[in-house]
């Protein structure tokens, strides 16, 4: 039995590890010439860490990550809107919340796989089904036959485009810059996100005096003006926000900026297609507002390995995976999109009203949502 996984991102690599753990060898086909992370930092919430626990790799991740005490939402003057105590997570959800540099996360994941498990420079163009097998056609002219295909090839998945040509990605209405910088962040105990009239600014401490920040502003899709934004432009935009935001920007070089428009995937009607399965962003790409995209990809990997162990055949396991995963992942996509609309309100008056309403929200409302997202059982 040969299983191919297209895409060597968080979903693809974690799935290869999860399958290896149950004695199934899968080959990962990655488009890039080397396995490296695209992006800056990432939050691994308790549900993701619990998934890594199940795979027995949580300690390695924790060593490279940074434990988070709390997540605070502030207004542009630095006044607290809401605070989530993430340190209490371990008791409640069985794991803590960490932040990690994406490159380090990829290194840890790769350390659990053999080089022979991951083939780089293999950009899938399209596939063909022939009998019970699937033939993969790559951009370098090569082909591979597999019995089963797990598509973990991201939001623009070519496998999904072939299976569901009418599926659409949706621009969220805001654009985002990110960077990881050297910064005395070891004393920072909390991650924060600031909501203000110029947009949103997130500050996330990482390990070893590194800091990950992101900034989102409302924009037209693919606006060339923003594509060419430099750190000075961001300083003009966010320079009046509370400390340490201006200082964080002053410590960033323009060449460190990663820019992209934020989009998600409209809910799909199907993840399982007999011998082919969509997972991760290929199946349920979400906006980053809940910090759950990768966390859900990690849940996917753990649950897929679990159903494969229990189901009589792989197509049965893929259908069971779809049954178990569709409602939860699409709930995250929907909630995250909604949070983005609220967080990105840039009108001063409406924003002020939102902040007052948020402060008045009973803690139980926030808790309910946290329980639903983080309180996963594998
Ligand atoms: C600004 C921002 C912040 C985020 N913050 C968080 C966070 O804090 N926490 C969190 O959980 N999530 C976060 N996310 C979401 C997270 O990044 C994604 O959900 C996650 O990376 C999805 O993993 P994936 O492996 O499914 O897809 P990807 O990471 O997109 O990986 C897909 C892989 O497939 C490869 N590929 C693409 N096309 C082909 C092809 N044709 N053939 C072969 N290989 C191919 C790509 O090169 C890539 O390696 C954030 C996203 C954004 C945009």
Nutshell version of this structure?
This protein is of the alpha/beta class and 378 residues long. It has helices spanning 10-21, 46-55, 58-64, 89-93, 102-111, 158-163, 224-227, 231-238, 245-250, 281-284, 293-310, 314-343, 348-360, 363-374, and strands spanning 3-6, 26-29, 41-44, 66-67, 70-75, 80-85, 98-101, 118-119, 124-130, 133-138, 143-146, 148-151, 169-182, 190-196, 199-206, 210-218, 258-265, 272-273, 276-278.
Residues in helix, %: 25-40%
Q: What is the CATH level 1 assignment?
A: Alpha Beta
Spans where pLDDT lies below 50 across 5 or more residues: none
Each distinct ligand: flavin-adenine dinucleotide
Shape: globular
Distance between the termini: 26 Å
Task: Kindly report the spatial arrangement of strands forming the biggest sheet.
Answer: 6-5-14-15-16-13-17
Oligomeric grouping of the chains:
single chain
């Amino acid at each position: 039995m040969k299983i191919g996984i297209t895409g060597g991102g968080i979903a693809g690599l974690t799935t290869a590890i999860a399958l290896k753990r149950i004695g199934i060898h899968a080959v990962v086909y990655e488009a890039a010439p080397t396995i490296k992370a695209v992006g800056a930092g990432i939050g691994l919430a308790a549900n993701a860490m619990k998934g890594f626990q199940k795979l027995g790799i949580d300690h390695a991740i924790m060593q490279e990550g940074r434990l988070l005490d709390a997540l605070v939402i502030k207004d542009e003057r630095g006044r607290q809107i809401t605070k989530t105590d993430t340190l209490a997570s371990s008791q409640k959800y069985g794991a803590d919340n960490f932040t990690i540099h994406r490159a380090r996360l990829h290194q840890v994941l790769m350390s659990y796989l053999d080089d022979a498990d991951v083939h780089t420079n293999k950009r899938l163009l399209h596939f063909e089904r022939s009998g019970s097998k699937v033939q993969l056609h790559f951009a370098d002219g090569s082909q591979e036959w597999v019995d089963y295909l797990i598509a973990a090839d991201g939001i623009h998945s070519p496998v999904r485009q072939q299976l569901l040509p009418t599926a659409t990605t949706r621009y969220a209405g805001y654009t985002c810059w990110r960077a990881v910088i050297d910064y005395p962040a070891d004393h920072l105990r909390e991650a924060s996100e600031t909501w203000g009239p110029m947009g949103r600014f997130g500050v996330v401490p990482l390990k070893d005096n590194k800091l990950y920040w992101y900034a989102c502003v409302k924009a037209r899709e693919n606006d060339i003006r923003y594509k060419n934004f430099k750190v000075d432009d961001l300083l003009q935009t966010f320079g009046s926000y509370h400390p340490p935001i201006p200082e964080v920007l002053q410590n960033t070089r323009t060449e460190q900026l990663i820019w992209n428009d934020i989009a998600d995937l409209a809910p799909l009607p199907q993840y399982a297609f007999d011998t082919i399965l969509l997972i991760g962003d290929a199946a349920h790409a979400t906006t980053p507002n809940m910090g759950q995209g990768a966390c859900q990809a990690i849940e996917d990997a753990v649950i897929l390995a679990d159903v494969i162990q229990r189901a009589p055949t792989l197509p049965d396991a893929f259908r069971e995976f779809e049954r178990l995963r569709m409602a939860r992942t699409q709930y995250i996509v929907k909630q995250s999109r909604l949070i983005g609309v609220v967080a990105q309100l840039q009108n001063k008056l409406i924003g002020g009203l939102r902040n007052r309403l948020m402060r008045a929200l009973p803690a139980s409302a926030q808790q309910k949502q946290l329980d639903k997202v983080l309180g996963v059982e594998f």
